[in-house]
Specification:
It is a single chain. This protein is an alpha+beta fold. It has a domain at about 20-140: Aminopeptidase, CATH 3.40.630.30. It has five helices and eight strands. Strands 1-2-3-4-5-6-8-7 form an eight-stranded mixed beta sheet, covered by helices on one side. Strand 1 and strand 2 form a beta hairpin. Helix 1 (about 35-40) packs across helix 3. The longest helix is centred in the last third of the chain and has 12 residues, at about 125-135.
Length: about 190
């Protein structure tokens, strides 16, 4: 009888609630679909991401929530997503989203967006800082990339201790094109 190989993949656990000053980061729930759909239907939000299409197809938000809250398929990339929930502070239940996607060798990629009504409030910096402080994936290195026409997003990463790594490009579904990016890195601990 041979021993089973050691599974070195990250544990697949539900995202934890992470406190921030003006909101909490909490796992998504199906009831978030309306606000997420409303925000991501805005061309400015969609074009600031790699994966949100514009126009937003019917059912896309519900499918996204089902994917990130369900059990990942074998071999699928594991992504944890949190809503910025300000309801305890008199704000909306969803102000935006922040995510961590598992990569190889104890690395994760950070992603984030905030609804346009909450731009220039510091919510994105606060969310990324809370996620970095909690480090729920216990990552040794965090990566992030932003489109070069979004310098405010780059400032969010700099504010949270990320260092510029280099230029690249990524496909934007909403733009239907490759877009120049800035890549950032943060060593943990």
């Amino acid at each position: 009888m041979t021993a089973a190989p050691l599974d070195t993949r990250p544990q697949q656990t539900a995202p934890q609630v992470i406190p921030a000053e003006r909101f909490v980061l909490r796992p998504l729930r199906r009831s978030d679909a309306g606000l997420i759909s409303m925000y991501t239907a805005d061309r400015r939000v969609a074009e600031g991401t790699r994966a949100i299409p514009h126009p937003l197809p019917p059912g896309a938000t519900e499918a996204f929530i089902a994917r990130v809250t369900g059990t990942p398929a074998a071999g699928a990339v594991h992504e944890d997503v949190w809503a910025l929930d300000g309801s305890a502070h008199g704000l909306a239940e969803v102000l935006g989203l922040v995510s961590l996607t598992h990569m190889e060798r104890d690395q994760s990629e950070v992603g984030f967006w905030v609804a346009p009504a909450f731009w220039n409030t510091g919510f994105a910096s606060e969310a990324v800082a809370a996620l970095v402080a909690a480090n729920p994936h216990r990552s040794r290195t965090l990566f992030a990339e932003v489109f070069q026409d979004a310098p405010v997003s780059a400032r969010v990463l700099s504010n949270c201790g990320f260092a510029y790594l280099g230029d690249a490009e990524s496909w934007s579904v909403a733009r239907g094109a490759r877009v120049p990016t800035w890549t950032y890195l943060r060593k943990m601990g």
